[in-house]
Amino acid sequence: MILQSEQATLDVGRKLGALLRAGDKIALRGTLGAGKTTLARGILEGLGYGAEVPSPTFAIVQPYEPPETRIPVAHVDLYRIEDPEEIPELGLEEALIDGAMIVEWPDRMPDSFWTDALNLHLEITGEGNRRLTWTAGDAWNDRWPLT
């Protein structure tokens, strides 16, 4: 899928946010500046969040809760995680009990964590557009790709 503008990236995110369920994991992959946080902002807007969405680079985990969002969601940025042994301290498994998770830089976690996730990869093309590619776990069979 080619995203020709920031607005297009937000629009895909909004549609995806409307489909999100408790237990869902979304892995956002791509280089710096590829649009991961923009896509996450769109997802949160699709969940009903109307305020500014900061990048969680320094907080690492930014939680969003009802009534601001339809379901609880953790927006996670693992960019600063250097030791995988730090990850259990973040409480990510608990976030999935009644909520969903959007994770930037998911390669800091074991691949096995992402087998049932929606794995999205954003790539900057030579034209300044973004190419969105994906793999989707079984939980996404009836929801992705977007129609």
Structure description:
The protein has 147 residues and is an alpha/beta fold. Helix content is 22%, strand content 24%. The chain has a 7-stranded mixed beta sheet, sandwiched between helices. A hairpin with a 5-residue loop joins strand 6 and strand 7. The relative contact order is 0.23.
Helices and strands in order:
Blueprint: E1 2-3, H1 6-19, E2 25-29, H2 36-46, E3 61-64, E4 73-77, H3 92-98, E5 100-104, E6 118-124, E7 130-136
Parallel strand pairs: 2-5, 2-6, 4-5
Antiparallel strand pairs: 1-7, 3-4, 6-7
Helix pairs in contact: 1-2
Give a brief rundown of this model.
This protein has three helices and seven strands; from the N terminus they run E-H-E-H-E-E-H-E-E-E. With 147 residues, it is α/β, with parallel strands linked by helices. The model has no long low-confidence stretch (mean pLDDT 91).
Largest sheet: 7 strands, mixed
Structural class, from helix and strand content? alpha/beta
- Percent helix, as a range, is 10-25%
Instruction: Tell me the distance between the termini.
Output: 12 Å
Percent strand equals 15-25%
Average pLDDT: 91
* Widest sheet: strand ordering: 1-7-6-2-5-4-3
Poorly predicted segments: none
Number of helices: 3
Nearest-angstrom radius of gyration? 14 Å
How many DSSP E strands?
7
